[in-house]
Amino acid sequence: MSATTAPAQQGIYHKAGSLRSERRWALWTAYLSLIVSAIIMLAPPVYMLLTSLKTSAEVADQSGSPWWVSNPTLENYWALLGNRMFIDFFLNSAKVTIAVVALTMVISVLAAFALGRMRFWGSQALATGVFLTYLVPDTLLFIPLYQIVGGLGLLDNAWGLVLVYPTLTVPFCTWIMIGYFASIPKELDEAALIDGANWMQMLWKIFIPVALPGIIAATIFAFTVSWAAFVYPTAFITTPSEMPMTIGVVSQLIRGDTFAWGQLMAGALLAALPPVVIYAFLMDYYIAGLTAGATKG
Amino acid sequence: MADGGAATLPRMDAPGGASLKRFARRRSTIAFLMTLPLIAVIGGLVVWPAGYAIHLATLNRRMTSFIGLGNFEILLESETFRMVIFQSVFFAITAVILKAAIGFWLAHMLHHIPANGQRKWRGMLLVPWVIPPALSTLGWWWMFEPTYSSINWILNIFAIPSVPWLGEPWWARISVIIVNVWYGAPFFMIMYLAALKSVPEQLYEAAAIDGATSWQRLRYVTLPMMRNIISITVLFSLIVTFANYDIVRVLTNGGPRDLTHVFASYAFQVGILAGNIPRGAAVSLFMFPILAIIAFFVLRGVNRRNKEEA
């Protein structure tokens, strides 16, 4: 009897021990992978920051490590902030982005409310259509849109971008707003109807306040997408004074064969700052918007 | 009392029914008006341009006469364009597989560590996704720069010879993939992490009681539970990667010798820079059948997911 139980017991203990060591190993592997990947993920922006703090002489000097700054200076940033053209890039980006975000939110909140709550003929097909439109990439549309925008005389004009950016933002924002509105219990609108509210009051007084996290997430999405848009401005804008940040930094700060690397990196970082700041402060909303497309849809 | 209530009900119902009908009619009108801006955006800025692209692609260079499928024939006969097809497919498939694998791995690692530390790590690892890709690619471009390459500097420390990142075709292709994976893997990580969190803990407990190893837990619990979200993210990313423009434009601009062009960058070069709008439209239309097939599968996945949840 005892001869048969002893190995079994040993087996159990062995198993428990291996389980604990397995857990420990798993934890170590987890931390190791996270540290290594965090270094890789953060290396490019960190290196951009290091370069932006160097003078041109230090960038050209190859005797030391490129990953170190011996005389940090902000002169690249001051040079950019004193550069009228760079300020124009920023103002154009801000102008276009704010207009597009406002337009997008009005269009998509109204449409999502109608599609999600006020079922009507064809609303289901339209909701599917919205999702399909979201899958159409901008690189498929930019050539016909170039002709269309050109026909309207809006090429080389920042307002032309306000016209076309909704193709990037509206489908996704409508899609996630349908999801957020669908999660609001039906009892709420019944109660509102009994109290004699009309549809606009219902949307304004109930749906928008209750779905506020969704609206913030959608706004952040619209903002980051409009700020980062690259294909349309590259195709439509050739005059520097009408360029938004992304294409401005990429095309105008690179001149000839001798690159002012420090200034270029400073420009790229300044241009990337608004979305990064929003991300830093509203990370949870940002991530909610990111995952909502797949988990709610 | 009860009888009285029942008797008054039908009388209340008659006018109520009529106004309800009117109400419904009004409701659908209001709803239609509310969706009108959306319909205008979709119709005017997506459907109409897409149809217009097909029309454009059948014209000659000066857009004066109809030449049918002439542009497509010329493209398929050109060596450069066949290279573009190869490069686009190779780039999209390799990059998506790597992004999905790395994202899956990182999501798992993140899921393993204590919950209070997860936020911080997640915040750091998502940074590449937050920076506009055109701008972060500038940073990579600088890191790949032949004379000053800081990556080569690190490789040299480990006695690995310098790599001609953007100078040699295959290395240029690999560079484009590296940057795309760096940019896209965090997105997969976030999606998979959200999916991992939604797998009920009891399933793992049941598996542990049945004596499942960690591999079996992954294979028979986690993967089946995540199958749908994995397929949706992979298909979605396939579309976005396939249509990518910014990274190729900034990093190689199609070079060396037009060997790293993808559909989007080649369409741009032919259509906008060289001014041959119809042929550019034809290049970008080559993406359409592939995207349509992927979109079909995405939609099927989404529908299936909705049914599961319902």
Automatic annotation (TrEMBL), chain A:
| Domain named ABC transmembrane type-1: residues | 90-282
| Any Gene Ontology CC annotation | plasma membrane
Alphabetical list of Pfam families matching this protein? BPD_transp_1 (PF00528)
Q: Which domain of life is it from?
A: Bacteria
The cellular location(s) given in this protein's UniProt record come to:
Cell membrane
Q: Which UniProt keywords apply?
A: Cell membrane, Membrane, Transmembrane, Transmembrane helix, Transport
Give the main location. membrane
Family annotation (CDD domains): TM_PBP2 (cd06261)
Q: Which InterPro entries match?
A: BP-dep_ABC_trans_perm, MetI-like, MetI-like_sf
Q: Does the keyword Plastid apply?
A: no
Keyword Thylakoid in record: no
Q: How does it sit in the membrane?
A: Multi-pass membrane protein
Record-linked PROSITE patterns: ABC_TM1 (PS50928)
Q: Which residues cross the membrane?
A: 25-47, 89-113, 125-146, 158-182, 203-230, 260-282
A single GO BP annotation from the record?
Answer: transmembrane transport
Concerning PANTHER family, the annotation shows: INNER MEMBRANE ABC TRANSPORTER PERMEASE PROTEIN YCJP (PTHR32243:SF18), MALTOSE TRANSPORT SYSTEM PERMEASE-RELATED (PTHR32243)
Family to which this protein belongs: Belongs to the binding-protein-dependent transport system permease family.
Query: Per its record, how is this protein called by name?
Result: Carbohydrate ABC transporter permease
Automatic annotation (TrEMBL), chain B:
> By its UniProt entry, which InterPro entries does this protein fall under?
MetI-like, MetI-like_sf
UniProt GO cellular component terms: plasma membrane
Q: Which GO terms describe its biological process?
A: transmembrane transport
- The regions listed as transmembrane in this protein's record are 30-54, 84-106, 126-144, 174-195, 229-247, 283-302
Q: Where is the ABC transmembrane type-1 domain?
A: 85-298
Membrane topology value: Multi-pass membrane protein
UniProt keyword annotations, A-Z: Cell membrane, Membrane, Transmembrane, Transmembrane helix, Transport
Family annotation (PROSITE patterns):
ABC_TM1 (PS50928)
Where does it mainly reside?
membrane
Domain of life, per UniProt, equals: Bacteria
Tell me which CDD domains the record gives: TM_PBP2
Which Pfam families does the record match to this protein?
BPD_transp_1
Any idea where this protein resides? Answer: Cell membrane
Family named by the database record: Belongs to the binding-protein-dependent transport system permease family.
PANTHER family in the record: BLR7065 PROTEIN, SPERMIDINE_PUTRESCINE TRANSPORT SYSTEM PERMEASE PROTEIN
> Which protein, by its recorded name, is this?
Sugar ABC transporter permease
